[in-house]
Design goal:
single chain; 290 residues; 7-stranded mixed sheet
Length: 290
């Protein structure tokens, strides 16, 4: 039993992002006690850990994320002390709808939730690189229980991210806007990933040309496939990229970069997306150099 009043519970602690949080993020934020369970941990063991935590981070795969988060909220329906849930999926809108509906259903005044997308991860998290400016937290929404206001604690955590990790938190976009904007930046880069997954000869070319991007995309294969499937704004991005790809010889890195650049122009109208990502920036630079 933890006696730390600020203990953090990670659901999905053995996953790649869960391990990244434990290794690179939480220690820098002053977290002393980290508890972990998995999505398939038996109910009685899960409830025991839930009762020890002050903060809970759900770091499970994107597929089934909304269902997992809603189930956790329901399991916390009788909790009699404050608990903050941190919902961190890369596709936010569906999770926001599901979790706020469940919070309204259980009516526990001690439960509050923060919906935030960390725009960084274990594959390429270096503060000294050119794309480090894309490492941000996109906070899309909060949901406060009647006995658990969030303003002060969220403000303190935002400050800690800024001071200890040089990561800013922006609050300009709601969950729906977040998903639309990221479809045309993060999602567009994932169209390149999908092509790599489908075409081994292109995959080999990208591995030689952009080994860091190649490694990251393969490490995040399942997340990428789920993002392409679950983000409601991806059909347009996919259709635009497919159209531009079909207008090339479909055989070289130059063809791929050309399709990416023309798709970027059509989707973002030649402007910098409000929520760029590291790999989007890398591909944009590669297209300019090609």
């Amino acid at each position: 039993m933890s006696d730390d009043p600020y203990a953090v519970l990670i659901i999905g602690g053995r996953g790649e992002f869960g391990r990244f949080l434990q290794r690179d993020i939480l220690p820098n934020l002053g977290v002393r006690t980290v508890l972990t369970i998995e999505r398939d941990t038996p109910h009685d063991q899960r409830l025991s850990k839930l009762q020890q935590a002050r903060h809970m981070i759900i770091a499970t795969p994107l597929a089934g994320y909304a269902e997992t988060a809603s189930e956790i909220v329901h399991e916390c329906r009788d909790l009699q002390r404050p608990l903050t849930l941190w919902l961190i999926p890369s596709v936010q809108a569906g999770v926001w709808r599901a979790v706020t509906a469940m919070l309204a259903s259980v009516q526990n005044p001690y439960l509050s939730a923060v919906f935030v997308h960390p725009m960084y991860g274990p594959n390429g998290f270096r503060s000294d690189e050119r794309e480090a400016r894309t490492f941000r937290n996109i906070l899309t929404a909060t949901a406060e229980g009647a006995q658990h206001p969030l303003a002060d604690e969220v403000g303190e955590i935002v400050e800690a991210f800024r001071n200890q990790l040089s990561i800013e938190t922006i609050t300009e976009f709601d969950a729906e806007e977040h998903d639309r904007i990221t479809a045309y930046s993060q999602g567009l880069s994932y169209c390149v990933a999908q092509l790599m997954f489908d075409r081994p000869e292109l995959d080999a070319l990208i591995e030689r040309r952009m080994p860091d991007l190649h490694f990251s995309f393969h490490e995040n294969h399942n997340l990428i496939i789920d993002f392409l499937r679950l983000n409601a704004y991806m059909p347009k991005a996919i259709a635009v990229f497919r159209d531009e790809w079909q207008g090339t010889a479909q055989s070289t890195c130059r063809d791929l970069f050309s399709a990416f650049a023309k798709s970027d122009m059509r989707l973002n109208c030649g402007t910098e997306p409000s929520i760029p990502t590291k790999w989007y920036e890398k591909l944009r630079a590669a297209a300019i150099e090609a």
